Amino acid sequence: MLKKNLSCTLWLGLLNLPLALYFASAYAPPVENSPWFVLGAFTCAAVGLFFIYFALASLILIFPAFCTKKPLGVGRYLYATLIITLLHIVLATDAQVFALYRFHLSYAMLDLFINGGGEIISLSADTWWSIGLQILVIVGYALVTVGLARFLSHHVRARFLVFIALLMYVLANLVHAYAAARQVLPIMEIQNRLPLYRPLTMNSLLMRIGLISPEELANRHVSISNGIFDYPKADLSYAAIPVPEGAGAGWGYVPDEAVIAQAGPAPEAIAGSAPYNVLILAVDALRADMISPEIMPYTATFAQNAWQYTNHYSASNSTRGGIFGLFYGLPPSYWQFALNSGVPSVVTMAVQHQGYQYGIFTSATLVRPEFNATVFAGVPNLRLESDVDGGVIARDNDAIADFEAFLQGLEPDSSFFSFVFLDNVHSYATPVGTEPVFTPVPASINHMELNKDTDPQPIRNLYMNAAHYADQNVQRILEMLEASGRLERTIVIITSDHGEEFNDNGDNYWGHNSNFTDTQIKIPFIMKWPHQEPRVITTVTCAYDVTATLLPRVFGVLNPRSDYTVGQDLFAPHDREYVLAGSYLENAIVESDRIVLIDNLGMLRFKDKRYQDSTDTTRDGFILDAIKQMSYFMQGVERVTPEATSTPLPQAAVATPDAAATDAADAAGADSAAPDAASAAPAPDVPADAEPAPAELVAPTSGAGATLQAVPVEPAADGIATMP
């Protein structure tokens, strides 16, 4: 009898495959664009996965009910039917969610549906009728399969079909393992499509048997795939930008369409023009409050002559997500999809398209996290790390020296985009023998002994000494740039990937990658743009805004920003309801007074800004909007934007390359409220006869809850608004 019941559970796994595979068609790669081996691998994985899904669930939930000496009664028959019905409903619901949003069913979605009172997710009457009809079909199918499974278990052995299903699953895993080692991206993307599918990888074994070398694994060539990661939403298009006297091609002027049509394909094609260079100088783990005359005097002085964004947030509390958000303009929830697809950041795309020299100089390796296969995928001769002995100080020095050599090797008329990423602050490191500026400092830090009662000041002093030393490296780099004669034509951005905590809120949080409070995700952001007077911006901005600013203003990208980022223009920031952030373990919707966490299981948790449980568990409508943003850049997902109209610009006024054509798309704002024209800062190099400058928002503090006050800004003689 036991064998018959066990056979029944196996038959349940087999007989429910047809309906499961029907629902699974929503997960399948596009048939018309996919090679036969991809479709074959998907089929093998789906058959094996859903057989295991139904067989294992039947073994756990139905088999015990059948293991009695009594004949199968109506009650147990209906119980088995109910279990099979629920399994199909879960699968059908997940398939529908995936078809609409390109992510899988999560508790967060169910929570919004159940507790949102119908205001966040609502279904029409026709939809409910359709759902009811599908449930009736599922119930009927379940009734038949349970009865048929009982019959077949007494008359036909299932072992051959079970062997075939399991063999297909094993084959799919082996194919994925080889594909992961060889970067066969369409195969790797299958794991993002199927729910609960976590196939094997065996890079170490494949290296031992000689199918792949460690060098190939670290430097494997990555090609762009048309897989599930739909980024950018449309191919980037570029405008040739006329250059007024005294300014380069990247200055931010957009001609009308007739001029664009006559100008040619790229800014560098215009005789005598020289696009702006870009230098992003990032210091790992640098808190926003380190930019002060006492701690980082050179950087603080530099900031006084630049645009200071005092309410700026990283995309993450960790390096991987922080750098990903900076270059992709997307939340870290897309990391795995970008890695599996091999699609580089739009910054990398634009830099290479416009013929810029690309100089990447990082102290730490680009292989872990896999920035070489994501952010900088496809960049030829990519510098992977500082290959020197002597620790983090030596690695930083090596990166700086290589940057200097890069500058010296540039042709006089060439333009460059460079990213210099220093690491000493992350390690709290200063050169041996350096006299500490801030004391006392601990001889060493035992992280196992840190607790709520540990005095944070000595550790903070060690960190501040590292920041003080990093300030000297910032000075060295910018002096190198000045000595090269390129400083005046270079946009300089100084920022970080995440912050650092020293038990600031008394909850025994130290370091980073553990919460989404301001101490861990608020970072400095200083932008020195040629021909711009200094300003202090207190409106909330974030790392995503870098792509939203540089692509149209420097590289002449004409697409609406919603094609490639969730950010907004740093020259016209608008109030946000939230900022999206992410870590290795969870995602966060960071509001002004609350943090909504979404863990890997999709569970929603609510924290206040000190990371205590929040009493405000309101499911606001924009939570669903935020969740949708985490899937918008997936294949087949479309953004619905409200109709918007824009006031025509004066003929002499300037706009970003996509402003005139895409106000409607940008008005929806990927993670911001609709733009308010009255609060927008002017674009770079606004002519003197442009519209009057708006009031600038300034505040004495940089806290997230700082009160903003409007201070009038008077236009200077050249039309550039300056602060009083």
UniProtKB/TrEMBL annotation:
Residues 277-552 form the Sulfatase N-terminal domain. The keyword Coiled coil does not apply. Keywords: Hydrolase, Membrane, Transmembrane, Transmembrane helix. Signal peptide: none annotated. The chain crosses the membrane at residues 36-65, 77-101, 128-148, 160-181. Residues 3-237 form the Inner membrane protein YejM N-terminal domain. One of its GO terms (molecular function) is hydrolase activity. Residues 654-691 are annotated as: Disordered. InterPro entries: Alkaline_phosphatase_core_sf, GAG_Ulvan_Degrading_Sulfatases, Sulfatase_N, YejM_N. Pfam families: DUF3413 (PF11893), Sulfatase (PF00884). PANTHER family: SULFATASE, SULFATASE N-TERMINAL DOMAIN-CONTAINING PROTEIN. This is Sulfatase-like hydrolase/transferase.
